[in-house]
Amino acid sequence: MNWAFDATTLLWALPLTFTCGWLASRLDVRQWRRSEQQAPKAYFRGLNFLLNEQQDQAIDAFIEAVQHDPETSELHFALGNLFRRRGDYDRAVRVHEHLLARSDLSQADRHRAQHGLAMDFLKAGLLDRAESALRKLDGTPYATEAQLALLPILERSRDWVQAIDTASKLEGGNRGSFQSRSAHYHCELAAQALHTSQPDQAKQHLEIAKTLSPQAARPSIALANVYAAAGDDDKALTLLLNLANATPHIVPLLCTQLVQLANKCQAQDRVLALLQFADNVAPSIDVTQAMSALQPQATTALFESHLNRQASLAAVAYVLADNNRTHTETTEALTKAMTSAITKAAAPLTRYRCAACGFEAKTYFWQCPGCQGWETFPARRVEEL
Fold this sequence. Notes:
Blueprint: H1 2-51, H2 55-68, H3 73-85, H4 89-101, H5 107-124, H6 127-135, H7 143-156, H8 160-170, H9 179-195, H10 199-212, H11 218-229, H12 233-246, H13 251-265, H14 268-281, H15 285-294, H16 299-309, H17 313-320, H18 329-346, E1 352-353, E2 360-361
Helix pairs in contact: 1-2, 2-3, 3-4, 3-5, 4-5, 5-6, 6-7, 7-8, 8-9, 9-10, 9-11, 10-11, 11-12, 12-13, 13-14, 13-15, 14-15, 15-16, 16-17, 17-18
């Protein structure tokens, strides 16, 4: 009797179980189909918003698509890029970190997510974290892009040794030459060596810089300063004269050193001949002032000659301030007033201006403090441009 009851129960249970399983599978399939339909709709809706430059609505649509299909990596990448583009760096970082935490992510997508994370940190100004993320891209298809992004970070942190190493890795690629940039890095190391009283080490860096960029002015100028500081004035003067002959446009930056060395080496005539040649090629207030320092009695004539070729308030100020000119008492008072007014008006015109970003400064910079560009300052003051 018990056996019959159990058999009857079993006969009823089997169809019931089968029916429940069938219904459950149908519900799962319908739910899966509904999810699959919703995800593409949200995805295409997001693309439509993106094409219409409606980034906020596009982000909402992509978030909806990701919720329906959390395993889709492409949606995550699109979402992370959108977050970064609109300045929402925290959410962009979370998206890329989520991708990197997935164990099923392909190697190519892992490199892509790492690059996206590095760009998030870079755009957010988190340079330490950006540097760490960029270094993890060594040996990946993103290595060159990472090194290019890493170079400005190293420049800001003044890590010149690492900057030289990174520039050497980029050299020989399809991104142009980095030898001129590396030469500046060696000049910076030379400046640090001089600051710590290591002139021999400074010379080594400057010689390397000259080898890397033979036409660059900075290594020769710095090397001349090292020789002059060591008392080797003749060698310093020869170095500057060779530089001036090779690159006449740089002469205005050498004037102060040339005058000092000319007086020390009794080479006034030789330096004056060079200055006159440079002045004939392109008039410069610095060159005229240097010639005036070597020929004080000809100051007025020199600046008047300069004014005839190039209008310059600064030159007028020098002419009016020339103590060798004769004045009556009344004219002296007038001259003093004119000198004061003209000097004030000329002050902004004696600045140097970056050709890349327009940053102006009283002194010449090899690297622009504004845009961080190297050698973007012309060797002429604002008024002469």
